[in-house]
UniProtKB/TrEMBL annotation:
GO molecular function: oxidoreductase activity
Entry superkingdom: Eukaryota
Entries under PANTHER family matching the protein: DIMETHYLANILINE MONOOXYGENASE (PTHR23023)
Name of the protein described by the UniProt record: Dimethylaniline monooxygenase
Pfam families, per database record: Pyr_redox_3 (PF13738)
Key word Oxidoreductase present: yes
Entry keyword Nucleotide-binding: no
Record's keyword terms, sorted: FAD, Flavoprotein, Oxidoreductase
InterPro entries registered for this protein in UniProt: FAD/NAD-bd_sf, FMO-like
Amino acid sequence: MASEVLDIVIVGAGLSGISAARFYLDVHPESNVVVLEKDTSIGGPWGKSRMYPGFWSQSGIRMSGFSDVPFSVPKDAEVCNDIYEAKYVSDYLENYVDSHVYAEKPLRDRIRLDFAVGRITKALDIWIVEGEQDGASRSFKTKRLIVATGITSEPKMPILAGSSTFGGQILHQNDYGTFMTQPSSIAQKVAVIGAGKSAADAVYGLVKAGHEVHWIIRKSGDGPGAFTNPADNAKGPFLNDPELAATRMFATMSPGCFTQPNAWTRFLHGTSLGDKVLEGVFNGADEKCKKIGNFHGRPGALDGFEDLESNVKLFWVTGQFGLIQRPDFWDTVAPNVRVHSHDIARLENHKVVLKDGPSLPMDVIVCATGFRNDFSFFSAEQRIQLGLPHLRADDEAEASWRTLEATADKEVLQKYPKLATPPPVSLAPDSPSLNRITPNRLYNCILPITDHSIAFHGNIYGPNGFRIAEVQAIWTTALFDGIVQLPGKQAMQQDIAWVNAFNRRRYPTKGALGNFFHYDMMGYLDRLLGQVGLTSYRKGWWADLMYPLIASDLQGTTGEYLRKYRAKMEGERTDRALGVGGG
Ligand SMILES: Cc1cc2nc3c(=O)[nH]c(=O)nc-3n(C[C@H](O)[C@H](O)[C@H](O)COP(=O)(O)OP(=O)(O)OC[C@H]3O[C@@H](n4cnc5c(N)ncnc54)[C@H](O)[C@@H]3O)c2cc1C
C-alpha cells in the first residue's frame, strides 16, 4: 500500500473541499495539500457527473461563486431574476481549480478523483486516510485533516416492502441525471417519491421528456413542500427572493442562535406587537406558497393536483421548501402529473401499491428522499470521540451532555418563549426514534472538542453553500495557524449544548442534528469571521444590514488575513525552526 505524508488531506472536492484547499494554499502556497474525491468530477451536486436537465440554482449570479473569482454565465444564457442553470457552476468550478496555481502546481493536480475514502484512523498524531482508486488500495498520512463530504453525498433510500419483486428500475435522485441522459425511445411510467425541490425538479423534467409521471407524497410526512417564486420580493436592492433572506435585517426576523439580543430583536421576539409583525410577515409568505400553483381553481388540472398545496410553516420550516425557477412549472405539472398523497404499502411486479389507495402500474421509481450523513469511514468509537452523531446509549458522557442540554434548553426558552409552542409536525426532534441519536457535538459545527487536528466542513445546512464553504475555510486555516483563540473545554461544551438546544426548538422537523441554520447563516458567518478577527461588515452599516451578502463582499479576505497575521505566522515558523515554543 503506497503512502505519502502531507500537510493537509481534505476529503471531498465539493464547494467546501475546494474552498478549504484554496484558502489554505493562498496562505501557505508551498504546503502539500491533497483533496480526495470519490466522484469522477469535482463539485458534489454541482459537478458534471451529477448535473441534470432542469437543475437551476437557488442562488442568483452575484450570490454564487467565491469572492476571489466572480461567477458569471454566458451572455446568451437563460436567466430568471438573476437565477441560472446549475451547469454553469460546474464550468466555474472546473476553471477555478485550473486557475489557482500554487508553487507551480494547479489546484486541479492536487485533487485525486475517483478516490473513495473508506476508512480513517489515527495513530499517535498522524491521520491515516485509506481508500480505493482504480481497484487498488491507497493511503495518505497527514497531521491535519479536513472532512468535507457534505450533507448530500450518501443517498437515503426509503425501505419499500417488496422492492426485490418490482422488476423495474429504482433509483435515487443522485442518479437522476444519468437516468435522463439514457436514450429512451418509449415513454415510461415513472413514480417520483418525495415532497421537496428535487422531487419537483424530477417531476418537471420527466414530463418534459415525455414520460407518464406520478408524484407520490407520503401521507405520514409533513406534506408537499412550500415553493416560492424567485420574483417574490425581487424589488428594491433584491434581484430575487433568496437575496432578501440573505440580509442581516431579515435574519433579525428569526430568533437568533449566534446573535446577541438588541432593542429591535427584543421587540420582535419578546412583545405581543412584535409577534404580530412576525406573524404578518411569515403568514404572508405561507399564503403566497399556497397560492402559487392556484391549486384549487387551475383549469385542466388532473385530480389530486390540489394535494400539492403546502401546509409548511416557513417560520418554523416544518417541511420541505424551495424555489420554483421555471415559469411554466405549474402549467406543466397540473395537466400532466398524477399526484398521490399516500404512503406506499408495497411494491409488486411493476406496480406501486399505495396504502388506502390504488395500485399503480410503474416502470421506474425515482426516490427524491434526501440524504443521510453517517461518516461511515469512522468507527462507532471514533464517532463518539469526535462528537459526530452516534447512539446516545453508547456514550458514557451522555448523562452530562443531557444535563448541559437541559440547562441550555431552559435558556433558549427564556430568551425566546415562542419556541415552546411549535406547530404539530410528523416527527419532532424529541420523538423517541430521532432521540436515540445524538446531535453533532462540534464547536462551530466544525471542530471536535478534544481533537483540534481535524475539522468538518459543510456538515451544516444553510441557504448559501458558497458563503459557508468560504468562511469555514478561513476559520479552519486560522485555527491551524494558531490564530483562533478557542474557549476552554467546558465553555465549548456549553456553547455546543446551546446550539443544539436552540436547533431543536427552532426547527422542529430539521433541528435534531444541531446543524440546520436556515435563518441563522448570517449570524454564523459573522461569528466565524469575528473569531478570526476579519471584517464581515464591509459596506457601511446600512448596506451591511439591508443588502444581501453577495460573493464579492468577501473579496480581499486573503489579503486582510495575510496583512494581519503574516508576521505572527513567520514568527512562529522561526520559533519552531529554533525549537522555541509550541505550534
Ligand atoms: C440537488 C441539489 C441542489 C442544490 N442547490 C443549491 C443551491 O441552489 N444553492 C446552494 O447554496 N446550495 C444548494 N445545494 C446544497 C449543496 O449541498 C451546497 O451548495 C454545496 O454543494 C455544499 O458543498 P459541500 O462541499 O459541503 O458538499 P458537497 O458539494 O456535497 O461535496 C462533498 C463531496 O465529498 C465527496 N465525498 C463524499 N464522501 C466521500 C468519500 N467517502 N470519499 C471521497 N469523497 C467523498 C462527494 O462526492 C462530494 O463531491 C443543493 C444541493 C443539492 C443536492
